[in-house]
Design goal:
Helix 1 runs antiparallel to helix 2. The chain is an alpha+beta fold. About 4% of the residues have low confidence. It has one domain: Nuclear Transport Factor 2, Chain: A. Helix content is 37%, strand content 39%. The chain starts with a helix and ends in an 18-residue tail after the last strand. It contains three helices and seven strands, in the order ααββαβββββ. Strands 1, 2, 3, 4, 5, 6 and 7 form a seven-stranded mixed β-sheet that branches.
Length: 166
């Protein structure tokens, strides 16, 4: 019994230090993936093709869906198709998000967040974005995004009205 207590007293500081380090790493990873969501939207608005490519895995895919008069409509662009479209576009896109929920495990993460999208300063739609990430040797990369596009019945954004600064 005394040996067990002694072993616990000796190991406890090391176990506590490891737990604190793990918690700090998790907090850093949470911040990193949420920051990358913002960087993704900033690159989209700026039509920063190089910046966008640096964030995305080359083989990833987006899935966006909306319910239309003819039923479910699904878009399935690859990352490359999305970046090509971004490069050739001329409309100003501003996407905002709030209250991100983050799930982490080892080298994978998911960010689930409500958003709203404005095109040329006018509201387009709201929805939910679900970003999937993989932590590579170069850092976090977006492996894919699934998002809903909901043009009606959007709750008011807690961010308030769009303040478009061009």
């Amino acid at each position: 019994m005394k040996k067990t207590l002694l072993a616990l007293l000796i190991c406890s500081p090391f176990c506590l230090a490891a737990a604190i380090a793990d918690a700090a790493d998790a907090a850093d990873d949470r911040t990193a993936v949420v920051d990358m969501v913002q960087q993704f939207f900033d690159a989209m608005t700026a039509r920063d093709v190089a910046g966008m490519r640096a964030m995305l895995t080359p083989d990833g895919r987006f899935y966006g869906y909306r319910e239309g008069p003819d039923g479910l409509q699904v878009m399935r662009p690859t990352h490359q198709q999305y970046v090509d479209g971004l490069a050739g576009g001329d409309r100003r896109l501003i996407e905002r998000f709030w209250d991100p929920q983050v799930l982490l495990h080892d080298r994978m993460a998911v960010v689930w967040t409500p958003y709203d999208l404005y095109v040329d300063g006018s509201f387009s739609h709201c929805g939910i974005d679900s970003f999937s990430f993989l932590k590579t040797d170069e850092g976090w990369k977006i492996t894919g995004i699934v998002f809903s596009m909901e043009p009606d019945n959007c709750a008011a954004s807690p961010l308030g009205p769009l303040q478009d600064r061009q």
